């Protein structure tokens, strides 16, 4: 069984209460970080299914004055970006994922973010290699980001691993946020 399937199967076994508690803990840990609170422009994502929920985090960042941009998936699999302007500013996209209705800012909008929060199935605790769902959307987006911008993958406990397979195009993250805390891989 491949690693993606193994993690997705594990997530499917998490009960709703555990998912809520895990997401709330991760949100609070992130909001306690000065570099999160001070970020004026945050690139995030609107979580789906058993991903660590970002809904409360996006709302909290927005209410605290950050400009939050969310992805809009393009037909070629790349990510465009648009501003989140509250819960009523979202509509289902072509694949059912909620997307902002604001004017699109282009694929390079992520370059201007002071903080980038991305989905992941796992992160390698040593190298920071991020395992996504295999479509490469976030790898393309993260390739546009400077090396000093905090890139953070949101994970459930047990998804920070010793050894994540990597392809040449895979992008690393600087941090992993889990309900138990923030992890920073040893090397990049």
UniProtKB/TrEMBL annotation:
Catalytic activity: (6S)-5-formyl-5,6,7,8-tetrahydrofolate + ATP = (6R)-5,10-methenyltetrahydrofolate + ADP + phosphate
Keywords: ATP-binding, Ligase, Magnesium, Metal-binding, Nucleotide-binding
UniProt xrefs under SUPFAM superfamilies: NagB/RpiA/CoA transferase-like
GO function term, MF aspect, one: 5-formyltetrahydrofolate cyclo-ligase activity
Listed Pfam families: 5-FTHF_cyc-lig
Cofactor(s) required for function per UniProt: Mg(2+)
Segments crossing the lipid bilayer: none
Highest taxon of the lineage: Bacteria
Keyword Transferase: no
Keyword presence, Magnesium: yes
EC number assigned by the record: 6.3.3.2
Family: Belongs to the 5-formyltetrahydrofolate cyclo-ligase family.
Record-given protein name: 5-formyltetrahydrofolate cyclo-ligase
Species this protein is from: Sphaerimonospora cavernae
Lineage: Bacteria, Bacillati, Actinomycetota, Actinomycetes, Streptosporangiales
């Amino acid at each position: 069984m491949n690693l993606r399937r193994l993690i997705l199967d594990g997530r499917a076994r998490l009960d709703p209460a555990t998912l809520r508690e895990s997401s709330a803990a991760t949100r609070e840990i992130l909001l306690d970080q000065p570099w999160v609170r001070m970020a004026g422009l945050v690139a995030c994502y609107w979580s789906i299914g058993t991903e660590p929920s970002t809904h409360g985090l996006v709302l909290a960042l927005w209410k605290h004055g950050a400009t939050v941009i969310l992805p809009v998936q393009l037909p070629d699999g790349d990510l465009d970006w648009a501003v989140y302007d509250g819960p009523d500013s979202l509509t289902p996209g072509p694949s059912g994922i909620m997307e902002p209705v604001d004017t699109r800012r282009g694929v390079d909008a992520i370059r201007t973010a002071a903080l980038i929060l991305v989905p992941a199935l796992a992160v390698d605790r040593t190298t920071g290699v991020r395992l996504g769902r295999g479509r490469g959307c976030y790898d393309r987006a993260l390739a546009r980001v400077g090396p000093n911008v905090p890139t953070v993958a949101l994970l459930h406990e047990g998804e920070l691993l010793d050894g994540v397979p990597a392809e040449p195009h895979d992008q690393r993250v600087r941090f992993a946020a889990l309900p138990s805390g923030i992890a920073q891989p040893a090397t990049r």
